[in-house]
Specification:
A hairpin with a 4-residue loop joins strand 2 (53-56) and strand 3. Strands 1-3-4-6-5 form a 5-stranded mixed beta barrel. It is built from 3 helices and 6 strands, in the order ααββββαββ. Helices cover 19% and strands 45% of the residues. The protein starts with a helix and ends in a 5-residue tail after the last strand. It has helices spanning 2-13, 17-22, 94-103; strands at residues 42-48, 53-56, 61-74, 80-91, 109-122, 128-141. The protein is α+β, with helices and mostly antiparallel strands.
Length: 146
């Protein structure tokens, strides 16, 4: 026990001590790069607004559809009111993209897990506008629209 304490104190005073202790006593292992973890997660449950459409190019195909979600609340006149929000859903994943295009229908209820993405579209006149979409990573189909 005494010998290990002496060895430890000797190593700590040498010029290589910091690197030796950081790298599990070897000089070959690189110092770990610190990567910050972040979260970009969206979960939606709603109804499809229109049949999915194929967009993009042959090299970069994408399937796009709209999804309606809503929230109920009581307004100032104490009447029950419903506010609908429309979301633009894009599907890039090949297997999921084909399934959505072939089987998803307007009015169908779906659960979507994905992430927010931002982009820019140019209309026919050349004016660009910023878009916000949900890139679907997973979609759960519920029974058809009824």
């Amino acid at each position: 026990m005494l010998n290990s304490k002496i060895l430890s104190s000797i190593l700590r005073t040498t010029k290589y001590s910091k690197q030796l202790f950081r790298n599990n006593y070897t000089q070959e292992a690189p110092l770990p790069v610190k990567i910050e973890k972040t979260i970009n997660k969206v979960t939606l449950l709603g109804r499809v607004g229109a049949d999915p459409q194929k967009r993009g190019t042959e090299e970069h195909p994408v399937v796009v559809f709209s999804l309606a979600t809503h929230q109920n609340y009581i307004n100032n006149n104490e009447e029950s009111t419903q506010k609908t929000d429309w979301h633009r859903i894009v599907v890039f994943r090949p297997g999921l993209r084909d399934t959505v295009y072939n089987y998803l229908q307007k009015g169908q209820r779906v659960h979507i897990s994905g992430r927010l993405i931002y982009g820019e579209l140019k209309d026919e006149s050349g004016t660009s506008r910023t878009t916000t979409s949900i890139a679907a990573d997973d979609i759960i189909f519920f029974n058809s629209k009824n």
